[in-house]
């Protein structure tokens, strides 16, 4: 099973680099993330310069680390549709989905393999950003905890985006529709907590708990909360399960 999943993951991962998608996505991601990092760094240095003691005031974690990874998550919200829009949509448009569905692979292996291919690309993108913590450690002495936990949280949050994108890509052969709907749904679950202030006690708690970004706060503080990890993993599982149901119905049409 795992060998088949890895075969699909490798196939789709390589296809990212045989088209401009991977280069455009990684280039855009690194350009924006780099700008955000050096903006936060410059702002923090200016704050320190205006500090009376020079080493008082805002910590490196609060001044640079948490805003940096918070901005990274916003950027991933925009980048995710570009990664997932082709996973099933292109297969349907090129009529290669029929060959894939009649192969010896199970539907679960195909779906998990495609999800893993998207996560491999996300992993490459996050690995490239490791240069920024290196820059931080060369100039300051930040805590390891918030940085490591922020990477874990960002990877899990990106997994939620990929699961949603995979599901919506399975519902259409139009990549533009898949990308637009992925961004819309991701944004909805990002800002859903905003509606909590106008809702009643029950709905307020429910909407707050459904917020994707609300669950990231603990990671940014250097805390690995099992409830937050379970929430993200459950979100990913639901996305993959819905994808399975869509593709299963497609197979019997």
Describe the structure.
- The chain is mostly helical and 253 residues long.
- The chain starts with a helix and ends with a helix.
- It is globular.
- Helix 6 runs antiparallel to helix 8 and helix 8 packs parallel to helix 12.
- The mean pLDDT is 86.
- It has 12 helices and no strands.
- It has one domain.
- 77% of the residues lie in helices and 0% in strands.
Task: State the main characteristics.
253 residues; mainly alpha; 12 helices
How would you summarize the topology of this molecule?
Layout: H1 2-17, H2 21-50, H3 60-84, H4 89-93, H5 97-101, H6 107-128, H7 131-139, H8 144-169, H9 175-191, H10 201-210, H11 217-220, H12 226-251
Helix pairs in contact: 1-6, 2-3, 3-8, 3-9, 6-8, 6-12, 8-9, 8-12
Can I get a quick summary?
The chain is mostly helical and 253 residues long. It has 12 helices and no strands. The chain has one domain.
Largest sheet: none
Measured as a percent range, the helix fraction is: over 70%
Tell me the quaternary state: single chain
- Unreliable stretches (pLDDT < 50, length at least 5) are none
| Strand tally | 0
Could you tell me the strand content as a percent range? Answer: under 5%
SSE order, as H and E?
Answer: HHHHHHHHHHHH
Please state the structural category.
mainly alpha
Mean pLDDT, nearest integer?
Answer: 86
Number of domains: 1
Q: Which value, in Å, is the CA radius of gyration?
A: 20 Å
In whole angstroms, how far apart are the ends?
Answer: 26 Å
Total of helices:
12
């Amino acid at each position: 099973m795992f060998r088949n999943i890895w075969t699909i993951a490798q196939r789709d991962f390589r296809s990212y680099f045989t088209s401009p998608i991977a280069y455009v996505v990684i280039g855009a991601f690194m350009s924006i993330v780099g700008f955000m990092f050096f903006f936060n760094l410059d702002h923090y240095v200016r704050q320190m310069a205006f500090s009376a003691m020079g080493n008082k005031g805002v910590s490196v974690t609060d001044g640079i680390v948490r805003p940096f990874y918070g901005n990274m998550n916003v950027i991933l919200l925009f980048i995710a549709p570009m990664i997932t829009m082709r996973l099933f949509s292109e297969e349907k448009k090129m009529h290669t989905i029929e060959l894939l569905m009649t192969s010896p692979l199970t539907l679960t292996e195909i779906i998990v393999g495609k999800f893993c291919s998207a996560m491999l690309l996300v992993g490459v993108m996050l690995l490239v950003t490791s240069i920024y913590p290196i820059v931080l450690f060369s100039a300051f002495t930040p805590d390891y905890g918030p940085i490591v936990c922020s990477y874990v949280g960002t990877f899990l949050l990106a997994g939620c985006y990929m699961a949603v994108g995979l599901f919506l890509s399975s519902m259409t052969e139009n990549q533009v529709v898949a990308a637009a709907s992925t961004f819309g749904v991701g944004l909805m679950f990002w800002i859903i907590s905003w509606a909590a202030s106008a809702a009643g006690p029950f709905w307020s708690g429910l909407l707050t708990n459904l917020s994707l970004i609300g669950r990231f706060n603990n990671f940014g503080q250097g805390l690995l909360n099992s409830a937050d990890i379970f929430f993200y993993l459950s979100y990913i599982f639901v996305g993959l399960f819905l994808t399975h149901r869509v593709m299963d119905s497609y197979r019997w049409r």
